[in-house]
User: Fold this.
Amino acid sequence: MTTSTTELGLAETTLLRFATAGSVDDGKSTLVGRLLHDSKSVLTDQLEAVERASASRGQDAPDLALLTDGLRAEREQGITIDVAYRYFATPKRRFILADTPGHVQYTRNMVTGASTAELTVILVDARNGVVEQTRRHAAIAALLRVPHVVLAVNKMDLVGYQESIFAGIAEEFTAYATELGVPEVTAIPISALVGDNVVEPSANMDWYGGPTVLEHLETVPVTHDLAHCHARLPVQYVIRPQTADHPDYRGYAGQIAAGSFHVGEAVTVLPSGRTTTISGIDLLGKPVDTAWTTQSVTVLLTDDIDVSRGDLIVPTKDAPATTQDVEATVCHVADQPLTVGHRVLLKHGTRTVKAIVKDIPSRLTLDDLSLHPHPGQLVANDIGRVKIRTAEPLPVDSYSDSRRTGSFILIDPADGTTLTAGMVGESFASPEPVKDEADDDGWDF
Assistant:
């Protein structure tokens, strides 16, 4: 069975993954609730439950934010704490959305929600304008290379629907995002509470001639030519039944992280560097000729070579270099600081290795996008550059080439806490020259 590039592209464009972000009380959950409600994507029993909960709190109208704020603490405090994922569809497109928290201490959740997003909606309260958390979320969107950013200037009803207020906020944010390297910003004035420009055009802002939020979500181009991605298959499991029906079967199972593979293709297994060819691909228990990104498959190889969990199968003609020195831009998400000399575990794909933080060349200052050189440590929510030395060679791509195989996380080896989310290679925060330093005692590589 073969699938054409055109078919792959069409399948990809029918689905849009997007995330919401913004400062506290900017109305993210209300916007998501309004999108779901006005696009007729809410079940009757869900709406009835929201109406009951709203009435019990003395509210005359349903609080649509409750459609996404599912935790008890979220409902009690009127805030979003965890990432809430929602799935809905219109006749034009299917959507997976991540409603992320606004509080500074939950920035790690925004990183999680935006890491797979193709579009981010950043909300701004029209009364407050661009604040520090707005800039932080814009920086994270740029760092994660989210292709499309929507600036939703919310609560326009509370500022009299004044065009000048919207224009000032849009100009300030766009200038900041452009400095970060955000490729596209679409500004939309809205009122999520009453529904202005969310699904239906607003009668209160006749000076605005652009799309509503939903119209933009339905029409924004999402074109990923899967055939031209760097093909990567992280091995998750080796399948060897050793039964009477399959005495010699040896397959290597995993989810294709990028690109496509086909039977007969020459491949290399990293980090060992051994080469062979693909003799078969099993998908859902059936043999296929080609498989592509996000499909979970079992690959059979012509030669009997040593392959185990954590290895990476790649096309021989497009194999990444392996290295023990990783330079990356990171967002630190743990409460404990990340310091020079910190001993960590680095998880890349299905492989986890020991590593040492050799240097922290710079930390990004969000106010003016300046770089603070050699801060010595990164604290929670800091964005900066790091240089890491790993115990074993890793086949890493640049994050600009592949968001899947160019990313990693740092883990505390003592308790398994996730410390840092990292993106390999250059970014808007360019590193300064890093001095070679003597190896630390302990884990020396």
User: Anything to note?
Assistant: The longest helix spans residues 163-180. The radius of gyration is 24 Å. Helices lie at 5-13, 28-38, 44-56, 72-77, 107-114, 132-143, 163-180, 213-219.
